[in-house]
Write a structure and sequence with these properties.
Strand content: under 5%
Oligomer: single chain
Number of helices: 4
Order of helices and strands: HHHH
Number of strands: 0
Distance between the termini: 108 Å
Largest sheet: none
Shape: elongated
Structural class: mainly alpha
Helix content: 25-40%
């Protein structure tokens, strides 16, 4: 039985440089021993003629360490200087003046906004409550220095619009009922 021949009459399963002498030498094979100096790179590589390797760095100037603790060095290792890895009290950082936490958000401002949105969408009765809470929240924000002024203003506006819708609905309801009462509901 013969082996299948691929294009150009070559066996598709044979490897280049295999047992087939017509395939030629394997270009990926290491150079044969005795064929030249294996340690020298091919021409065109390496340092230009007349130049040696670059000079090494000398020791650091006085007052500078190597930057790396030596073996058995009882130093701090890889952390930031002065960091022992232990948990610290956040108040310690505040005492050092690193960062101050932001002031809290006024809860009444959030409540005013939520009630104002509910007043616009579902139940208009929450509108006047949102207006009152928004005013109280603005006063407390200015007095205490807390955050949430935008929330309080948004709650005040949405509560005001919900209150206007409630008033319009009340006027409409009164007009319908009085018109129906005058005409005898006919």
């Amino acid at each position: 039985m013969s082996t299948p021949q691929g294009s150009y009459g070559l066996d598709p399963h044979s490897r280049p440089g295999g047992s087939d002498p017509s395939a030629g030498p394997n270009p990926y094979a290491p150079p044969a021993e005795g064929s030249g100096d294996a340690s020298s790179p091919p021409p065109g590589y390496g340092a230009p003629p007349g130049f040696g390797p670059p000079p090494g760095f000398g020791p650091p100037p006085a007052g500078y360490g190597s930057g790396y603790p030596g073996p058995g060095h009882p130093g701090q290792g890889y952390g930031a200087p002065g960091y022992s890895g232990a948990q610290h009290n956040p108040q310690q950082y505040l005492a050092q003046g690193w960062a101050t936490p932001p002031p809290p958000t006024e809860g009444l401002a959030v409540a005013a906004l939520v009630l104002g949105i509910i007043g616009l969408v579902v139940i208009q009765i929450t509108g006047p409550v949102a207006v009152v809470l928004g005013i109280i929240a603005l006063v407390r924000i200015r007095r205490l220095g807390t955050r949430g002024q935008g929330l309080a203003i948004a709650g005040l506006v949405t509560g005001g619009v919900a209150t206007l819708l409630l008033l319009l609905f009340g006027v409409f309801l009164v007009a319908v009922l009085t018109d129906g009462a005058l005409n005898g509901f006919s």
